[in-house]
Amino acid sequence: MKNEVRLVGEIKQKPQSSKALSEISRSGVSVLAMVLVLGVGGLSAPVLAAEADAIIDEGQKEQEEQTREQEIEDFEPSFPRIQGELVIELQNDWQYDSDDTANQFNNLYTTTEGDFNLYPFKELEGLFVNLHLTLEQINTGSGSGNKFFEQQGAFVENISLNYEGEWWSVIGGKYGPNFSIAYDAAPGIYGTDLAEEDIEIAEKWGFGGSATYADETLGAHTLSASLFTADKTILSKSIINDRGRLTSSDGGPTNTNSLGSAVVAVDGSGFAFAPGLSYQIGGAFLDTSRVVDKETGDIIPSSETDDEYRFVAAAQYAIDITDDIAVTPLVEYVHFWNGGGYKDEDRDYLTATGLVTYQNWNLAFGTTQKWVGPAEGDSFNDNQWQVSAGYLFDFGVSVDVGWKYATEEGVDTYTVGALATYAFEF
Q1: C-alpha neighbours within 13 Å on the C-beta side of residue 414
Q2: Are 118 and 34 contained in the same domain?
Q3: Burial of 205: CB neighbours in 10 Å, binned 0-12, 13-18, 19+
Q4: Distance of CA 92 to CAs 13, 146, 250, 412, Å?
Q5: Which of 175, 234, 238, 251 shows the greatest Cβ crowding within 10 Å of its Cβ?
Q6: Pair 65, 89 in one domain
Q7: Could you tell me the CA-to-CA distances from 108 to 150, 173, 413 in Å, in that order?
Q8: Minimal CA–CA distance to 275: which of 324, 218, 331, 232?
Q9: What is d(CA 276, CA 320) in angstroms, rounded to the nearest whole number?
Q10: Same domain, 53 and 190
Q11: Are strands 106-119 and 319-320 parallel, antiparallel or unpaired?
């Protein structure tokens, strides 16, 4: 998950100033003069009253908006303070048909995430500590059969020291370097499944920073960079159900004893000619010292391994069709060289999705295609297609239902599911 910060504050209502009252009084005098003039013209009393009320209401709304804007400018947050967000998801997936009968089961589980920011000093308002805790299903368990909150594990996904200035930022600690948007932004119950599993760069120890250039016409463009390594500390373990501590012997890209991996990306948005357009272009170098075959546990000979490189290009465009209807297409392409640390293995990922919203309703659909070209052997294509729809209730709970068709290593599996989500900030 990306390291995001949301500032939330409560603003107390203040009485209107004498200046504001005098402006309203002047508005009332102007309205009275207008009524007298229009009355001479022969307009009926109901018409005059309606127009006068409309003008008064408009004046009051403008004054209330000005007062609120001033209150926001005058608001000073307290220090130290903790702000954050809690997102609780309850999901049920029924894999009702598959070429492999072991894949046919019902799975009920939760994904709960808490993101907390501690702001310690008023003198350094941009300084904060971020803690992101995650409770999720670390695997579906062994054997076939239905699953009921099986293998749920809680762990620290992020813990970092951050500073955000007006146009720059720095970060150090355990976090997810900025690479790709589809793993987090693809809509629908299953929109992020394949991209999140294969593309997301998460739980790394290191440091990074960003710098932003902003222009009213050309938009805001942020250059970010990170140096990092895989988390091999005790924080790589989980509680409730232990996923195990990562060690150097486990191998894989970024799993080295130095900050040898790097990511550089440019993100942009806020164009005057296309306000809803955003993009990312980036590259990654993932240092690799050892690769272990996940199925056999054998160490791959060093002559058959190499460092992994990645390239990403992504864009999404939020288009307001009407005041109630919006359409947001998203497209992302990612290419791997030496995918997974296997020398000369190319991997390509293409994600294409669409989101349609109408008031509190949403409809999401899309696909992720994965092409793998090993150095030896035949190429193959994994993919998924999904569609879902849902509704967000005014009290903060959203409910979605969806369908997914996925092909992995030649095995086709069909899934229907439901997701209930509750999120609140504090």
Answers
A1: 4
A2: no
A3: buried
A4: 43, 11, 32, 19
A5: 175
A6: no
A7: 8, 33, 17
A8: 218
A9: 8
A10: no
A11: unpaired
Hey, what are 23's tokens?
């402006």
Return left, alpha or beta for 42; rule: phi > 0 is left, psi -120 to 50 is alpha, else beta: left
Listed residues 34, 50, 73: the one ending a domain: 73
Range of the domain at 25: 18-73
Same domain, 193 and 232: yes
DSSP string, 222-252: EEEEEEEEE--SGGGS-BSS------GGG--
- Which two structure tokens, joined as six digits, stand for 411? 């095995």
Task: Give the three-state DSSP class for 157.
Answer: strand
In degrees rounded to 5, what are phi and psi of residue 243? Answer: -85, -5
159/49 same-domain check: no
pLDDT tens by residue, 180-223: 999 999 999 999 998 888 899 999 999 999 999 999 999 999 99
Tokens of 142: 């062994």
41 and 189 part of one domain: no
Backbone angles phi, psi at 365, to 5 degrees: -150, 160
Average pLDDT, the chain: 88
**Cα 264 from chain centroid (whole Å):** 19
Same domain, residue pair 88 and 26: no
Comparing C-alpha atoms, which of 337, 338, 336, 369 is closest to residue 352?
369
The pLDDT tens digits for 280-317 are: 999 999 999 999 998 898 999 999 999 999 999 999 99
Helix (H, G, I), strand (E, B) or coil at 99: coil
Alpha-carbon distances of 319 from 274, 326, 355, 392, rounded to whole Å = 9, 6, 10, 20
Give the DSSP letter of residue 23: H
| Tens-digit pLDDT profile for residues 27-59 | 444 443 343 334 444 445 555 555 556 666 677
Residue 256 resides in a domain: yes
Per DSSP, the three-state class of 37 is: helix
Query: Among residues 45, 73, 101, which one ends one of the domains?
Result: 73
**Shared-domain flag, residues 29 and 145:** no
For residues 15 and 68, what is the distance between their CA atoms, to the nearest angstrom? Answer: 11
210: domain CATH number is: 2.40.160.10
CB 97 within 8 A of CB 413: yes
Whole-angstrom distance, CA of residue 311 vs CA of residue 277: 20
